[in-house]
Amino acid sequence: MSRTDLGMPAFPRAAERATRDQRLRGNLRHATHTIRAKRATAVAELDDWQRLRAAGAAVKNRTLRHLDHYLLQAEAAVTEAGGTVHWAADAAEANRIVAGLVKRTGEREVVKVKSMATQETGLNAALEAEGIRAYETDLAELIVQLGHDRPSHILVPAIHRNRGEIRDIFRREMAAWGRPAPEALGDDPAELAEAARLHLREKFLRAKVGVSGANFLVAETGTLVVLESEGNGRMCLTLPDTLISVVGIEKIVPTWRDLEVFLQLLPRSSTAERMNPYTTTWTGTTDGDGPRAFHLVLLDNGRTDALADTVGRQALRCIRCSACLNVCPVYERAGGHAYGSAYPGPIGAILTPQLRGVTDPLDASLPYASSLCGACYEVCPVAIDIPEVLVHLRERVVEGGRVTRHGARVTIKPAKGHAAERAAMRAARWTFDHPRALRAGERLASRTRRLHPSRLRVLPGPARAWSDSRDLPAVPPEPFRDWWARHRAAKGERE
């Protein structure tokens, strides 16, 4: 994954700063509560939602088990349909491929469909370094780009902005990127949308190269699928002479029949609609219809490392609906920027550390960016057990780091700074294995009852870090062991 976030603090520090921004918290609270309420209504319409959810998970699991087969099938189908397939091992290679393809056309600007994969690779910055300007055409992505900002949500990248802020951004920045905003532009959503539409129209009609991602890639026909709500994506996918699609290797589904399952799951989970207003499909090239040249860049960038992890690989089932973000109490308060990745929220907390490893302080902190409440699992349309993966990754942070493959051998790169935690876990294991030692420790700990609860606010030593962010529970008046003995004795007397 491209490290455009280098220098960002670990999640706890970034979140602490974000939670002090009252306007940000208000924007997030209003938006996430609105989206999740609508989603709940849309999902409740289907009696077989849980069966659909299970079917989606099963299709993804089957695809991941045979990913090599479906990738080669997709490559053959795309090639037969007139497209060209490129393989990118990492973000840098993907960016080099795309930049080279654009240069080959002689063009110096591209229009873009909203794409998580190109955010992941940092494509826009890479193209700019090559003298190529990339124009985002999704409304929310346009707001982020004009505001010199970063996306903070998978579905609604500008969720942290309110309409007054958007109006100010349009007034201030649009002229430098093309058609200026109307002088009397207000903050009415219809006015803002019209200003964006007029600004983008000249770019659609002028652009010769389009860049996209894809929600799905159907292996049996080599067909790519993009779901959207505005129509800007369809303009990018049909008007340019050259189309370049950067797609993660996990986006494959085997057949059109499998695709049908996800075309029900994704709209309801993301936009709370029965189906997306625009579902665009394309297969290679067709004379006289659409782009004359099509290039598919299949992106690995850590995905095969994630696939090697039998617990963590379920993150690759993700269909980028963002439902988990909208119910997460941590995301709601901290926002997306604190995650330091293209993938914020609960899914980012498990996907990013697997794609990038956990040797960097920011990435190592992400598995802890959760209360483990389980709300994310309950709404996930492909049943990713995010809490399970979070706990698994916390173990990896403590025990080692990134899993790397050397042929058939798997090794774990040792992590630093966790010797004390490992020693404490070993001591706990030994204590639980020796009942007498456990009993002695419990009786020693029971002496803390002599301290008044109001005086015991902070734990001593390394445990202080735990109590710094939590309220200590009140100490029971007597040990459970004593209560149990007394309870059993009283019961025996009654019998």
Automatic annotation (TrEMBL):
<feature type="domain" description="Lactate utilization protein B C-terminal">
    <location>
        <begin position="393"/>
        <end position="487"/>
    </location>
</feature>
<keyword id="KW-0479">Metal-binding</keyword>
<protein>
    <submittedName>
        <fullName>Lactate utilization protein</fullName>
    </submittedName>
</protein>
<keyword id="KW-0408">Iron</keyword>
<keyword id="KW-0813">Transport</keyword>
<feature type="domain" description="4Fe-4S ferredoxin-type">
    <location>
        <begin position="315"/>
        <end position="384"/>
    </location>
</feature>
<dbReference type="InterPro" id="IPR003741">
    <property type="entry name" value="LUD_dom"/>
</dbReference>
<dbReference type="InterPro" id="IPR009051">
    <property type="entry name" value="Helical_ferredxn"/>
</dbReference>
<dbReference type="Pfam" id="PF02589">
    <property type="entry name" value="LUD_dom"/>
</dbReference>
<dbReference type="Pfam" id="PF13183">
    <property type="entry name" value="Fer4_8"/>
</dbReference>
<dbReference type="InterPro" id="IPR037171">
    <property type="entry name" value="NagB/RpiA_transferase-like"/>
</dbReference>
<dbReference type="InterPro" id="IPR017900">
    <property type="entry name" value="4Fe4S_Fe_S_CS"/>
</dbReference>
<dbReference type="InterPro" id="IPR024569">
    <property type="entry name" value="LutB_C"/>
</dbReference>
<keyword id="KW-0249">Electron transport</keyword>
<keyword id="KW-0677">Repeat</keyword>
<keyword id="KW-0004">4Fe-4S</keyword>
<dbReference type="InterPro" id="IPR024185">
    <property type="entry name" value="FTHF_cligase-like_sf"/>
</dbReference>
<feature type="domain" description="LUD">
    <location>
        <begin position="73"/>
        <end position="285"/>
    </location>
</feature>
<dbReference type="Pfam" id="PF11870">
    <property type="entry name" value="LutB_C"/>
</dbReference>
<dbReference type="InterPro" id="IPR017896">
    <property type="entry name" value="4Fe4S_Fe-S-bd"/>
</dbReference>
<keyword id="KW-0411">Iron-sulfur</keyword>
<dbReference type="InterPro" id="IPR004452">
    <property type="entry name" value="LutB/LldF"/>
</dbReference>
